[in-house]
Amino acid sequence: MQEIVTLLLFVVAARQWCYTYASDVIVVTDKNFSDVAKSQKFFMLMFSVDWCTGCRYAAPEYEYAARELKLHNPPIPSYKVNGMTEHQLVQQFHVDSYPSVFMHNNGRYVSYEGDLSGPDLVRKMEKEAEPYFKWVNDLAVIESYRGIDESLLLGLFTSTDHPLIQKFERSLHAANPRVKALASTAVPVREFFNVTAGITSILLLQPTRFAKNFASTIVNLTKYYTNESVFAGEITSHILRESRPLIGLYSKQVAGIYEDVKDQLICLLPVSTSVSKNRLHANAALAKQLRERVVDYMRDKVRWVIADELEYPKFVESFQNQENPADDMLAACKWNDKTYQMSGEKLSMKTLKAFVTKTLIQLEMDAVKTKN
């Protein structure tokens, strides 16, 4: 009997040893975490404690994710922290519940809020590790990479390890997938955009559908990247702001850039051109009228968007005054959570110009009241 007990104890101990040896999860501490974090561009980090029931359930799922991520090209390491002993890291990450998982991307941490299942952890971490931009050397690729209603952030660097690339990548995190991005070091590409040799330039190429010319769609954002006091999150706001053209056409592809717009006046022209035999011509004609008789006068104070109310009713409705919606809305403007409507039987550029001018004056008066 004693031999059987001894054998069982040996088997249990062997299993525990094998489990520890086979684990792809690496333990980190207050002392070595800083060096570990600097050495890896991507990794996953879990805080756990022995007394936590949820941690015991999460442990095998995290192990599964660690094995899968180790097979990633390049491998993505998975770390764990003992919340009972590593107090500095607990404070650094503001951990107040266990288990807590964070995903690291090039110096930035994202708190994981999803289901703690192995496959979900893998999918989220792999998505986090996806590149936000591609390197290209051909102008034709740049021209074909986006549609005429989409924006493109283009980084023209002097080398593939330029110090601004990290900031460029970080600024794209919140903008992705709303704004596409490419980067290039190719001389022909740089020359096409008139970028001098030895100079780095980061350009935002706006949608071209209703633009006067190609040059008018290029916005230089380099100054935000070279300014050390401007952080990536602030640059993201500039990217999204400039991604909205003076006159744009709403579609599923560009819906993201019109979501949660802050401190920028967006004015809508609802149309029903989807029932027209030549909707492209109808939209272009409206945009031409708008540009010649209203937009040039307003300059950069307003961003205009044409949206088909039959195809995108929810977007059009978001511009309506919910307390007093208008059935005969010809135009509407939105500033943060405030909406302004213009009603009538037929759209007139003269009336539209007066309506938007009045809206701008009202916003200026509101700003003065708020300041005082």
From TrEMBL:
The yes or no answer to whether the keyword NADP is present is no
Q: Which GO terms describe its biological process?
A: protein folding; response to endoplasmic reticulum stress
Q: What UniProt keywords are attached to this protein's entry?
A: Signal
* Signal peptide region: 1-22
Q: Which GO terms describe its cellular component?
A: endoplasmic reticulum
- All copies of domain Thioredoxin, residue ranges: 1-130
Q: Kindly name one Pfam family recorded for this protein.
A: Thioredoxin
Report a single Gene Ontology molecular function: protein disulfide isomerase activity
Q: Which family does it belong to?
A: Belongs to the protein disulfide isomerase family.
| Protein name per the record | Thioredoxin domain-containing protein
Q: Recall the taxonomic lineage recorded for the source organism.
A: Eukaryota, Metazoa, Spiralia, Lophotrochozoa, Platyhelminthes
